[in-house]
Amino acid sequence: MTTIAVVEDDRGVLDLIKDALEVEGFDVLSYHDGIRALDAFESSSPDLVITDIAMPEMDGIQLLQRLRERSNTPVILVTGRMEERDELVGLRIGADDFIRKPFSPQVLVERVRTVLRRYRSPARVGDRTIDESVIERGHLCMDKERYTCTWKGRNVKLSAIEFRLLESLAVRPGTTKSRGDLRDIICEDQVMLYERAVDSHIKRLRKKFRSVDEEFNAIESVYGIGYRFSHTRRNQ
What we know:
Layout lengths: L2 E5 L3 H13 L3 E5 L2 H8 L6 E5 L7 H9 L6 E5 L4 H10 L3 E4 L4 H16 L3 E2 L2 E2 L4 E4 L2 E4 L4 E4 L2 E2 L4 H11 L6 E2 H9 L9 H14 L8 E4 L3 E4 L7
Helix pairs in contact: 1-5, 3-4, 4-8, 6-8
């Protein structure tokens, strides 16, 4: 059974989310603050985390940041504010989706299913499913079953979206992917949250790889179009 952790200090909202998910067959763990949730995740990691942004002691952004230091568990942020800054910060840290209050239980459940499907489903090239579980491109090695990534043998921790973005580029080195194609990987059937989200994720990807290799330059920008993974000798 899929386990979902809900972190929300508002009892009414917490009960709403818990009831909606349990009716659909999910196992729900509930927490009233980020500190207790983070402590619980030390011993048992859920399949997905839903957390409110505005909470005392440790807010949702801080919880996401702490979680990303050690886990790629998908995270959906819940917010009652309409500030773009929340989305920008969340996307840069590694949020997988946002839900704005007020929301319907049906929308909540569909967002959860979409994130889980995106996280678990195999990559595709056109209409063909890629069956190989490991992608190796020079110094890059990606294990799709374990959701792990290494560069020159060193581990690079990626969020679910970052992993899928990189995978889509690395599958066909040298082929340019447009921002529209890459946005589809982030959004699938959802409304785009932020038109420059692709650039934010690519920037974060580069930063993570450069933390293990200062000379990393395998993700190239193609002006006016998008990005490509450069599988050339300089990256070998």
